[in-house]
Amino acid sequence: MSNLLWAHHDSIGYIPLTSGASITVRNDTQSGAWSSINATGSTTPVTDTVFSIWIDHGVAPTNASYAYAVVPGVNVTGIDAYVKSAKRCRLVTNTTTCQSVRDDSLGVCGLVFYAPDTVGITDSVTVSTDRACMAMIRETADSVVIAVANPLNTACTLHVALSIAMLGTGVTWDAQSGRSTATFIQPGGLDAGRSVVKRFARANVGVKRNPPARGRRSMLRPTQSGLRFVPGADARDALLRVYSPSGRVLASRQVNGDPISIDLRTISAGVVFVEMRESDSKETMEFSRMR
After folding, report:
1. Cα–Cα distance measured from residue 147 to residue 104, given in angstroms and rounded to the nearest whole number
2. What is the third-level CATH fold of 208-289?
3. Which burial class, exposed, middle or buried, applies to 97 when counting CB atoms under 10 A from its CB (0-12, 13-18, 19+)?
């Protein structure tokens, strides 16, 4: 069938995440020996009814993709409600370099990097890694928890960068790029492949001028609702631009001599950047919008 919404069997739900996929469901008698998948398994043939569900990829597919979800511990009513819920997991990326999903209701994202890559997991948060790895990231109002594993089961050092200001051991914040980089030392030996978990606090970086203003009379001040820009006497055609750590422009205002206010109350909590252009100079400031 090509219009399957979900399938349910033995307290497990199966959901295709790509439309139009050709899916086959069967429940028939099969025979086999455990030794065919495990050298130490029994060679005695076993026969039983077996439930099977699979996606037909066609003949010699090229640059094709598919995605599905497996939901354990659910009944028929539960899987139907889950499929129709807006809180279900969503597919973030499905490429040759990274596959990832996120549960927005929990703030949890799971990622498999096959190579160094940068992925936008929300409108304001990007994740980068400098080598292949598996990662799980959980965001809360005041913290970020990152778990990283090396599926090659070898000791190594890798770095994960997020566009979130974070504080803690093993993490550095770069105000210029708006990214925090965490270092993970992956174990070898008997612990090879084991996840390394670190918890970081979200940082309130406040307002910081970079580079320092010299000879400028214009002022940018934080207010309860956002920011207020008071142009100086020498200001000519000033331009204010507010953008997210991923580079998305959130607000842009032209200033022609009168003070203006920028309301940031509709912007999600986290760090935003304000670019101020005046005459032939430019400044970039970071501003923390808290919940």
Report:
1. 18
2. Immunoglobulin-like (2.60.40)
3. middle
pTM of the model: 0.62
Residues 177-207 pLDDT 10s: 888 999 999 999 999 999 999 999 887 544 4
Q: How far apart are CA 250 and CA 244, in angstroms?
A: 7
CB-count exposure of residue 184 (10 Å: 0-12, 13-18, 19+): buried
The tokens 């399938």 sit on which residue? 7
Q: How far apart are CA 275 and CA 63, in angstroms?
A: 40
Which residues in 40-105 belong to E strands, given as ranges?
Answer: 46-56, 68-72, 90-94, 98-103
Domain 89-203 has CATH 1.10.3470.10: no
Spans in the chain with pLDDT lower than 50: 205-216, 290-291
Q: Which residue is associated with the tokens 């923390």? A: 288
